[in-house]
Structure formats: C-alpha cells, structure tokens
Amino acid sequence: MIRYVRRRLLTVIPVFFGITLLVFCFLSLAPGTIADLMGEGGNVIYADQAALEERLGLNDPLPVRYAHWLWDLLHGDLGESWQTGRSVSESIAQRVGPSLILTGSGVVLAIILAIPLGVLAAWRPRSAWDKLSSACSMVSFGVPGFLLSLLLVYVFSLQLGWLPSARMYTTGASGSLGDLLRHLILPASVICLSNLGELVKQTRSACLETMGEDYIRTAWAKGLRSRAVLLRHVFRGSLLPILTTVLTHIPHIIGGSVVVERIFGWPGMGSLMFTAILSRDYALVMGVTVVIALTVFATNLLLDLIYGLADPRVRQGRAVR
C-alpha cells in the first residue's frame, strides 16, 4: 500500500505544478493589471502606476515571475493581496469557514435526501419514488443555479418576507446561531437542489447495477426478506460508487459556489475568487487556486486509497473489468 501511495503522489506533483503554471500564464495573458485599474480612476499618475508595477514585479518576464511565486510557495508563503495588502493565507482562512458552512450544509442535505431517494427509486421502478427522483433530477439539471437563486429570493424574501435575501448575518445584529440559520436556508437550498440530481442519478444507477448481480438473486432464493436484501446486499454492494460520487463533492465544499455566494452576498471562497479576478489581484487568485487544487488532489488520493483497499487489483495497477 505504501508503494501504491508513493506512486500516486509522484503522478500528482507534476500535475499540480502544471495547473499552477497554466493558471499563472492565463492570468498574465488577461488584459490589464491592478496598476491599470488603479490608474483608470484618475487617482494615480503615470509615475505612480509605473512604480506600482515595478514593486509588484509586473515588469519582469513571465518565467521570472512564476519562479518567484513558486519559490515563495515552496517556502509556505502565498504572498500578499495586491488589493488589500493583507496576507493571502489570512484572507483565505477567513473565507474557508463561511464556505464550509454554506456549501457543506447544502451538499450534506443533498446527500441525506439523495441516497434514500435513489435507493428507493431503484428498488421500486416506475413507482412514486422513481417519479420523484426523476423530477428532482430534472429540476437539478435543467434549472441554472442563478435562476433558482433569483426565484427563491423573489418568492421567500420579496413576496412572502419570510427569509433574508443576502449576507451571512443581519447588519448590526449580534450574529446569533438563529440569525445564521435564517440567512443559510435559501443559499443552502439552492446548493442542495443543484447537487441533488447527480447524487440521485448515481445512487439509482449503482443500485440498479447491483440488483442484476448473481448474489442478489441468490439472496432472494434463500428467502431473505426484502429489507434484508435491500440493506445488506443491494445498498452495501452499491456503496463504493455512491461513496465515490459523494467524495467528488468535497472540492466543491472547499471552493464554494461562486454564483450562489455572489447573489446572496455570502462571504465565502467563491465570492473571494470572483472579487480577486475582477480586481486583477493575481496573488489572491493563485492562492485560491492552490487551495482548491490541493483539495482536489487530496480527494482523488483518498478515492484511490479506498479503491486500493477494496480491490487489490487497483494497487497492483491492473485493469478492473
């Protein structure tokens, strides 16, 4: 197993540096810099703008700038935000918590609803559960997140006045748990509905595939009860692909949802990335990219370990049919 983990890490490291290089190059090709944006308002004269570009190293060649950034990264320094002058690590640390609260709540709620719904839809095809799962998948895949957010705000905030439409806490309030939950309901519901369709579909497909296996027919032939067949055999046999689908949502939890956070004014990683791109704060964009990339790689490594423990053929590098 140690050799298998080492082999996986050796493949992850070059991919990680390749991703950071691509993002760094794309940012450098984007028109305008933070110095240009500051000069557009007329508050910065040309000499000050040139001095700012020199201080930020924007006049250096692209390979030199990337080498400096990579050197700082290898020493645990993500740099400082060009816009605020604060540490990138500090800025990200303040936004991770709100993203975990919002996106984590939505994804966990989607998992709680999707797994039993997908299992029941596979267990009783063409039943009410199957129709309900199809309806949830249709809404999840067919309605964009921004449209769903606007609809919920219009109905529950503007028309009914039941729930707040923006921010994490009420302005001027003490920031109580109840206030947080009231602000969390609408954006978390959008994230839940957006992820529900894929989770229901994958759970249903995995259970249907398992139900066609020979050991399921053997369980029926033994005279086991339906509940025992469903929980002990069908669900357990489908657990690995279901777990794979669930774990792939972990990077989404860390990275946040850009659209939902912007519409609801939620101070998470998604809105931080959006603001950093608009302000050409490339140091902050690269910092968020590093966090998301590391989260993706850690999740994939965890999935590989799970598959390696479940099937020795994966550890030995042989194809699984």
UniProtKB/TrEMBL annotation:
Domain ABC transmembrane type-1: 96-303
GO cellular component, one term: plasma membrane
Transmembrane segments: 9-30, 100-123, 135-160, 239-264, 284-309
Keyword line: Cell membrane, Membrane, Transmembrane, Transmembrane helix, Transport
Membrane topology recorded in Swiss-Prot or TrEMBL: Multi-pass membrane protein
Subcellular location: Cell membrane
Gene Ontology process terms (BP): transmembrane transport
Main localization category: membrane
Pfam families in the cross-refs: BPD_transp_1, BPD_transp_1_N
Record family assignment: Belongs to the binding-protein-dependent transport system permease family.
PANTHER family in the record: ABC TRANSPORTER PERMEASE PROTEIN, DIPEPTIDE TRANSPORT SYSTEM PERMEASE PROTEIN DPPB-RELATED
Protein name per UniProt: ABC transporter permease
Species of provenance: Candidatus Flavonifractor intestinipullorum
